[in-house]
Amino acid sequence: MVAYLKMETLSLQEQIKQIKLAFRKVERSSRLQWLFEHYPITAKDYYIAYFLIASDTWNKSQRRAILEYYLQTIPHASEQYYLKLLKVIPLAEFIEVIDRIKMKLNDADLDLLNYYLNPILRERGYII
């Protein structure tokens, strides 16, 4: 979404690097709003938000807002997005939001969510 860059000529890795540089120029107090505006969950490239989230630090209220907003689209079809969130969000906060969201999922979505989350949670000692 960084319009002044010629993104179509860059690899995805280079695009993300350039976007991170632009993101870091945004005033810290405005980054969450910037993130939501530039990478809304309705955007085709909203997955880039996960790279930005993982590259910064967030206070507790920001982390909760991130989880509640970006986890609206679960289940994600890859564990990498959950792992990016868990780089900067404590497991207990993550689980709290996931537990609320799980109640709204149909069986197929819940199965997919469990498929990706169970190994991650087991690795962190949450599931025995």
Written account of the structure:
The protein is mainly alpha-helical and 128 residues long. The protein has one domain (10-123). 61% of the residues lie in helices and 0% in strands. It is built from 7 helices and no strands. It has helices at 12-25, 31-38, 48-54, 60-70, 80-88, 91-102, 107-123. The longest helix has 17 residues, at 107-123. The N and C termini lie far apart (42 Å). The model has no long low-confidence stretch (mean pLDDT 90).
Order of helices and strands: HHHHHHH
So how many helices? 7
Shape descriptor reads: globular
Largest sheet: none
Rg over alpha carbons: 15 Å
The average pLDDT value, as a whole number, equals 90
Count of DSSP E strands? 0
Question: Cα distance, first to last residue?
Answer: 42 Å
Helix share, percent: 55-70%
Structural category is mainly alpha
Low-confidence stretches: none
The count of domains is 1
Beta-strand portion reads under 5%
Short description:
The chain is mainly α and 128 residues long.
Notable characteristics:
mainly alpha, 128 residues, 7 helices, globular, 0% strand
